[in-house]
Amino acid sequence: MINAIYGLVLVLSLPWLGYRAVFLNKSRRGWRQKLWGQVPVSQANRPTIWMHAVSVGEVQLLAPLIARLSSERPEVQFAISTSTESGYSLAQQKFAEHSVFFCPFDFTWAVRNVLQRVKPELILLAELELWPNFLAAARRERVPVFVINGRMSDRSFRRYRWISRLTRWMLGSLHTILVQNNEYADRFVALGADPARVEVTGNVKFDGAFNPKHAEFAAVLKSQFQICEDEAVFVAGSTQPVEDELVVKTYIALREKFPALRLIIVPRHMQNVPSLIDLLGRSGLQFVRRSEPVEPIPRTGQPRPVIVVDVVGELAAWWQLADIAYVGGSMGSRGGQNMIEPAAAKAAVSFGPRTENFRDVVSMLLTEQAATVVRDQIELLEFVERCLNNSEWRCAMGQAAYRIVAEQQGATQRTCDLVKQQLDSVPKFSARHQRAA
To answer: Using CA of residue 431, residue 79, residue 178, residue 201, what is the dihedral sign?
Structure first.
C-alpha cells in the first residue's frame, strides 16, 4: 500500500522533476541509487556504519563525528547517504575516502537492496529523517537505528502529530534518540518515543564550529579576494532572495559613509544566485563571483566590489572573515539557519525574527546580549551602522558569542561514546571487531 502511494506521488511529481533537471540542473544524478538501491558495496571484512544526512547542514555536522569515530574505531568503515544534489556534492568532497551515495526513496525493494549491499552494523540518522519502509527493513535485518543530534522543530512536531499512529510506530522502531536539548527530548516523548531511549547529548554543531580547517581556508580566501585588515567585513550567509534585497539596500545606504565596508553574500541555494546577480546589476554595484578568477582590485578609496559566493560548502570559512554577520532564513517561514558558526568566529551576529529551528541557541545568545534580532531593513541598517560606529560594542558582542559556543563543547564526544557503547553490544559487530583486532 505504501509503495503504491509513493509510486503515485512520484508519477505526479515527474513534471516538477523534469523542470528541476532541465532548468535548474538539479535531480539529474543517482536515479539507480534512489529508485533501485544500486549503491556501492561495502567491504565484507570490515564493520560498517551507515550515516544519513539530508543535505548540506547535516553533512557538515557528520564531519567531527566521523573524524572522532575513525580515530577511536579505525577498523570501522563509513557509508554516507544524502538526499540532495548539494549534500551529495559536499559529501563527496569531504568524505572522499568513504562510500557516498544518494539515499534511496522509501520503496521496499530500494531500501532492502541498500541494506544488502552496505550491510551496516548500525545506522545513524542526522537530526531526523524517518520513513516507514526504511525503518521496517532495518528492523527485519536487526540493524539498530540511532537519531543523532536530533531535533524536533515546531513544524515537524505538528506534522508528525497529524500521523500520530504511524509516528509512534516509527519512533518505536528506533534504538536510541540522541537529542540537542530538553525541549526536543520532551517532544519526541510526547509523540510516542520511549523515554528510556531518549538522551540529551547537546548540539554537535557547537563542536564543529571550532574546526581549525575553517580558519586555514579563510586565510586563503582573504588573500585571494584581497580583503584588507582595515576593512569591516559584513557577511550575509544562508540568505533567501528577500533577504538579499534587505542586505543590498543596507549596503547601498552605508557604502559612501563607510567606504571600508566590504559585503560578502552567501545565498542558501545556488539557484538563487542569478537573481542576486541581477539585483546587484540593477543596483549599480560591482561584484566578483567566488567561482571565477579574481583580477587585482585597485585601492582607490572607493567601495570595493561585493563578493558573491556561488559555490557550496564554504560558508563556515567565510564566517571566519566576518566582523558583522547576518544569518539568513530568518525573515520568512524557514525557521532560521545556523548562527553558531558566526558566533564562534566572534562576529557581531544578527538575524531575523523567525528562528524557530535554533530556539535554544538564539535564547542563549540573546540572554547574554551576544546577538541582535532585526525585523526589517531599517533595523538591519541600524544594526550594521552601530557596529561600524561603535567597534567596542561590536567586539563585546562577538566575544560574548564566542564564550557561549566555547561553553557548549562536548556533544561530539558524548555522542561518540554512546555510539561506541552500542556498537560493542551488537554481537555481529563485536565478532567482527575481535577479528579485525
So the answer is: positive
Closest alpha carbon to 242 in 266, 276, 219: 276
Q: How far is CA 213 from CA 217, 252, 289, 320, in A?
A: 6, 33, 22, 11
C-alpha cell at 14: 515527474
Q: How far apart, in whole angstroms, are the C-alpha atoms of residue 171 and residue 236?
A: 37
Q: Quick: pLDDT tens for 126-144.
A: 998 899 999 999 999 999 9
CATH of the domain at 322: 3.40.50.2000
Global pTM value: 0.86
∠ Cα 348 350 356 (to 5°): 135
In what side-by-side order are the strands of the sheet with 122-126?
99-102, 77-82, 48-53, 122-126, 145-150, 176-179, 198-200
The CA angle 372-376-377, to the nearest 5 degrees, is 100
Q: Which amino acid is at 330?
A: S
Total structural domains in the chain? Answer: 2
- Mark whether 49 and 142 lie in a shared domain: yes
Domain of residue 306, residue span: 212-407
Same domain, 389 and 401: yes
Question: Is 425 in the same domain as 398?
Answer: no
Residues 93 and 213: their CA atoms lie apart, in Å, by 14
Q: Return d(Cα 437, Cα 432) in angstroms, integer.
A: 8
Rg (CA), the chain: 23
Q: What is the pLDDT of residues 389-431, one digit of tens each?
A: 999 999 999 999 999 999 999 999 999 999 998 888 766 554 5
- C-alpha grid cell, residue 233: 567585513
Distance CA 423, CA 437 (A): 15
